Amino acid sequence: MSRKKRSYKRGYVRTEEHAENWRASRLGHIVSSETRLKISLAQKGKKKMSDEAKEKIRTFQLGRGKSKEYRKKMSLARRGEDNPNWKGGWWRFPYTPEFNVKLRTKIKQRDNFVCQGCGCTERQYLKKHKKKLSVHHINYVKQDCNERNFITLCNTCNVRANGNRDYQYAYYTYLIEHVVYNKT
Questions:
Q1: What's the structural domain count of the chain?
Q2: Is residue 50 part of a domain?
Q3: Which of the two residues, 53 and 60, has the higher pLDDT score?
Q4: Angle at 45 between CA 39 and CA 47, to 5 degrees
Q5: Is 65 part of any domain?
Q6: Euclidean distance between CA atoms 92 and 83, whole angstroms
Q7: What is the dihedral of CA 147, 89, 158, 165, to 10 degrees?
Q8: Domain residue limits at 157
Q9: How much is the pLDDT for 2?
Q10: Average pLDDT over residues 28-56
Q11: At residue 118, what are phi and psi to the nearest 5 degrees?
Q12: Residue 155 burial (10 A CB sphere; 0-12, 13-18, 19+)
């Protein structure tokens, strides 16, 4: 690290003794008895981990994510209100009856069965991920079933669309209005 980057040490002059100690520690030399005594005194009174505590940690880490039973147990324990990300079930508001297979197929046909985010076709996506393309609500309101509120996306683009909602809303609205419906 150069001196310019270490602005917090500007003006600091390392003594020759300090430089020698630093070099010795880097070379793996044996620590002096004085230093050992200082370390020993610093460690006095600190609690050491018991063998029982070490065993608990070891067994926890061994089972973590390894067995199906453990994953199932944790999955059941973190469902619904027990999940730290629980927001009161707001996502369970149902879609309207108009948002059905017929409407989704119509939107996909309008978009030529192509993801409007990345350009992959439904056939390519099915072959690679074994999933169909999805239909995304541009304004994030499940009850709004206007055809201009929908866009065809693959799962990856759909997840991305839920990240930066303001940007994605503006981008997909522009795509629908100017590209799909050919407005200038």
A1: 1
A2: no
A3: 53
A4: 105
A5: no
A6: 15
A7: 80
A8: 101-180
A9: 45
A10: 78
A11: -115, -15
A12: middle
Q: Does the pLDDT value for residue 184 go beyond 70?
A: no
Q: How far apart are CA 173 and CA 163, in angstroms?
A: 16
Mean pLDDT score of the chain? 80
Measure the CA–CA gap between 152 and 132, rounded to whole angstroms: 10
CA dihedral 60, 62, 68, 70 (to 10 degrees): 0
Mean pLDDT calculated for residue range 74-88:
77
Residue 93 lies in a domain: no
pLDDT tens digits, one per residue of 122-169: 999 999 988 999 999 998 888 888 888 999 999 989 888 888 888 889
Structure-token pair, residue 154: 């693959």
Identify whether 33 is part of a domain. Answer: no
Residues contacting residue 139 through CB under 8 Å, at least 6 positions apart: 149, 169
